[in-house]
Each structure stands twice: as structure tokens, then as C-alpha cells.
Amino acid sequence: MEILHSKPVEDGFSMPAEFSPHSGCILIWPHRRDSWQNGAYAARTAFAELISIISRSEKVTVCARFEDYDEARRLLPAGVRVVEMSSDDSWARDVAPTFVTNGKKLRGIDWGFNAWGGLYDGLYFPWDKDNKMARKLCDLFMADCYDLRDFILEGGSIHTDGEGTLLTTEECLLGKGRNPQLSRQQIEQKLCSCLGVSKVIWLKRGIYNDETNGHIDNICAFTAPGEVVLAWTDDKDDPQYEISKECLDILESSCDARGRRIRVHKLPLPRPVHITEEECQGLDNMDGEPTRTPGERLAASYVNFYISNENVIVPFFGDENDKKAAEILGSLFPGREVAGISARDILIGGGNIHCITQQIPAVE
Amino acid sequence: MEILHSKPVEDGFSMPAEFSPHSGCILIWPHRRDSWQNGAYAARTAFAELISIISRSEKVTVCARFEDYDEARRLLPAGVRVVEMSSDDSWARDVAPTFVTNGKKLRGIDWGFNAWGGLYDGLYFPWDKDNKMARKLCDLFMADCYDLRDFILEGGSIHTDGEGTLLTTEECLLGKGRNPQLSRQQIEQKLCSCLGVSKVIWLKRGIYNDETNGHIDNICAFTAPGEVVLAWTDDKDDPQYEISKECLDILESSCDARGRRIRVHKLPLPRPVHITEEECQGLDNMDGEPTRTPGERLAASYVNFYISNENVIVPFFGDENDKKAAEILGSLFPGREVAGISARDILIGGGNIHCITQQIPAVE
Fold first, then answer.
1. Residue A145 catalytic?
2. Largest alpha-carbon pair distance within chain B?
3. Which of A30, A195, B112, B320 has CB atoms 3.0–4.6 Å from B152's, for a disulfide?
4. Band (A9; pLDDT cuts 50, 70, 90)
């Protein structure tokens, strides 16, 4: 693995859309006991079900800590590869490399990672194991690696259409916990030179009470060039309404890099999901303090799906809108079968299906 | 990775000779401070030089502990892959899988590993990280894995000619620290059913003072079907003389699996190598006791070479026989270039070049 100090775009590399073909997918076996209930045993079932579905059409590599390897291996299908790798938590979207290609070769970007806000408002400390993973994953996949550790970015805070347009949120990328020394313009330049985009669409905020500082991947996602789904509620008393309406207004008044108007499909949210007292009791404290409070609203959203080569895998919450969300996504991805996963145990960790996956684009 | 409970031979798999084509090679970055001088910093130079030479003609994967990954990555060529993997020490020959093929597919054997003798006369405790490596390496290389953990065997205790013959020593395989519950005949059956051999040639003992209980790979190795090199001294006062003479007599009176008489090439030993007081001071104690005593004779031997696709890589000891050993091996491997490595810092760890490498046979 070469460590590269150039920028991907000057080398002819860019980030494909998630709905382009994948050669594989990376996940991290959950283990953190203050993130995941019951020593992470609750979430393992959902992870294993998700991995099993992805592995129908993609080569899946699961990173497990030394102490988790045997159980991960036992619980996952034989066709899934399990590799030993240390991690602080299990959010592959945010700590695995962002892969770029020139159509023939694969390379990875090693962004800086500071646990969603570092010492300003990050979610745990330390995060050194997570921050080393992108480089190690490039090494594992024998992909040369762009050293962009001086720029803090998580994969969950960006979505691209593969045709020059990027979606993100101001709440996250302009927050004080990421790159406060950079201006909005400098951040745009960095995204353009690294990901091969020429147009950045800035939404204001992400899902209400999302502890990632409003990652785009929980509120809005491309389903095709020029088309997005947006997490939506019609309940004007819900604080989410104002956020989603603001996004809708921006999107409907935006053009993408090719000059197309963005077509917005509203994806209904489930009724607000609140963590129970019993669920909170399954979580270890962190530094003596609880990580969740009984009754706390979780950032549940159907937008946090993963697009595998043959499936769209959607979080289900036991809500009446589960079916509706699946129908909408089914109609937007006609070539793929929609699969729902009971995702409450992933949601309690603070994210969902998209957050725990990272696709590897296919190359020739 | 499937875990297989059949035997390789019944599935049509056998172990190729080391001089057959390789697709790659596995090593483990040294770290153990009671095995390797100066916190293993001394040995790293020799490891890096060896890895660099092997990587000229093979894809090399180096396993490094989490805490060693960054430095291993920094010190190794970009074309070498470094992966995180926990280990107790750095003897890939003995802890990596023994790979078998049917010409088309690669599979690995996960033998039991007990640190060269377990609680009877093993060299360290615990050895659980080492014992987990073979399976993890099969997983990494997406090779199905034979579960033979109930049989204790190290790769360094066997050599095959790829045509049905296996070389080993009684000192090691019949010792009390490996499989004392099995008879010689049962052990032969195990070797035959796992490695695809039909003839086992049993030498008595390995190199004098070899702490592996006389691994074959330090005293005798195939250079071609029907041909071996044997570590040799003409000094009748050296306790090694009697050992080597005994081996010679056995080999010269043996036929291989195809009925060929074994042709023996004597490979001179260096003058006896003794560890110095200064070198001993560079080693941590183990459980309060020194692992080496000043003046202790080390098991130096030129037989502990590695056959890569394009090189024969031979340990050098700063001895007048370095050149002679290289010449003999050069004549026996006409298609390969001989490369010598200053190997004293590997030797101090208790083995040599062959002990720290494990080849991956090429398949279609």
C-alpha cells in the first residue's frame, strides 16, 4: 500500500454512488458495552442478519477484535470473511476508508476521525483504534491510500450521486467539533478535490437528536442521479417537521452538478422511538455517566438503508410505516429486492444500517 | 471459510513441496521481548531485509499486533501487505496454516500449537494467540480450513518433497510434549492422511541444542524430489557430529515414496555460535528467569533457508562457511538466485529464516 499525498481528483479518481456496483462491503463486529445493549449481544443478532443479506450479492469482510473473533466467526455465514482488527466501536461508514476509483483501480481515503466531535462534543475517548482502521483496511484490500488525516470527516456525513453532486449538512461539516479552522468554502474545495464532485448541496440540519451532529445519511440519500429520499413527517408539532421542511425547500430549489432539478421523494418517518428504562439498564455507563436516559428520543429513520448489489436493506422499527417505507424504496430501486431488518438494537447504538456498512466499489 | 472435519487426502488435497511455485508468503512481525533482543528492534532489521527479498517474487503478508502495525508498515516496502493480527511470538512456520491444494483450490490445516511442548517442555505460556492464527489466516486468505487442533504439529517439524515423501524427526514428533497419547504408527497415519504422503522418513534428532525438540527444518531439507541437504560437520568432537552422522546413515539407507534412493548433499555448519553476555542483556527475563545464558550454544544452521519463487534465502553468520553454503545451495537450485541475510539476530530468537516464513502454494 502506497501512502499518497496528492488529491484523488488530480489522479483521476472519484467516489462512485452507492447504487453503483460493489465488489464488497466492510462491517465491524459490535462490542462496545456503553453503546450496545447487554455487552453488545443484543445487536449481534441484527448485525448477523444484515451481514447475511449483504453476503448474498457482495463479498463481506467483518472486522472483529481479537477477543471477539471466535464468536463472530461462529455466528456469521462461512462465505463471510472475518479478520482481526482493533476498533473503539463499530461504525464502518465513519471509520472505514471512503473508496474512490478511476474505473480500473481502487484507492481509499483515510480521513481524520475524532469520534464525531473530538474533545469538543465527541461521543467517546479515546478513538485511536478507530482512526487507524481506514489505513489498515486499505492495506488489507491492497488499495493505495490517500493520507487526509488532517481533515476530519466521517463517511456518514456525505452522499454522492456519482455524477458530480454531493449532499451534506451544515450542522455536521460546519460544526465546531470537526474542522473549525476551515471555512465553508475551504471545506467545499476539499470535498471537490477528494471526491470528484463539483456541486455541494448543503442541507441545514440532520435528524432531530441525532448525536452525529446531523449526518446526512440519516435524513437524505440519493436513490439515483437527480433523485433523493428525504425523511419526512407531516406532524407539525414534531421538532423534526421544521428540519425536514427546511431540507425540502433547499432541495427543491437546488440543481445538481449536471443542472438537473432535484426530485424529492418523501420517506415517512416512524413514530418517534424512545429508549426504555429496561434498555438503558442494558448499557454500561461511560466514565461514570449513563450514555442514554430512559425516554430519550432516538434518531430513527428509514433513510439509513444500505444499497447492496441486489438488495436495499432497510431498518424496521415495528412501526406501521415500516411497510410504507419499504414500498417507496422498492419503487425507487426497481432492480433490487427490499429487505427489512428489525433494527431497534442497532438504533440504540446511535445509528443504523447505513452507519455500520461501507461499500467497496467494483472496478474492472 | 468453511471449517472442515474431513481429512485433506480424502478430499484430494496434499501439501506441495516448498520448491513448487508460491502465490505468497506469510510472516509475523517480531515483538516478544524475551525472545528478541532490545525489545525486538534488533531482529526487525533482518526481518525487513528478508521480507524485502521475498517480496521480489511473492506477495508477502506480514501479521503485526495492533501496537506494532504502524512501525511494521513504516519499515516494510509498500508492496508488502501488513495486517493486524495478535500473536504470542513470530514463528509463522509453526503457527500459520500448513497449506494443501488439489491443484485448483487452496485449503489450510489448523494444527494444534502448544509452544513446542506445552506444559511439558514448551517455551512460553500462554500460547493462545499463536494457536488461533492458523484459522484466522485461512479466513484472511478465504481458504477453507481443516480442523486438526487435536493433533499438535508445527510446520517446522515436517518437510515434504511434493511426491509422497515426508521428512521428520523422532526427537520432535515422538516427544512427550506433543502427542504422547499417539503411537508412532498413529502419527504416521495422521501425517499421511493430512499431507498426502505415503512414506515418512524418520531421522532421530535435530540440531544440537535446538529448543524446538529437533525440528527437521534446521537439519535437513529437500532441494528436489529424492535430494536433500543435511547440516554437517567433520568435527568428531562436536556433539553435532554424531547427530548428523546418524541422520546420514538413515537417509542413505532410505528410499522415498517413489522408490528412489535419497541423495544427500552435506551442507557444512558454521563454527558453533554462542550467545554473548551483551546479547543476553538485551533480552527480558521470562517469569523472572533468563531465557538465554551467556555462552549458550545457539542452533545455527544453513539448512534453515527459505525457497521463494526466485530466490533461496540463506542465513549468514559471519562465518567462513557462509560462502560455501551459498555455493552449494546455488548449485542445487539452478533456477534461483541465492541471497544471504545476516541472521544472528534471528538466530538469537531461537530459529531462523525458514522458521519465520510460511509459503502459500500457487493454484490455478
1. no
2. 53
3. B112
4. very high
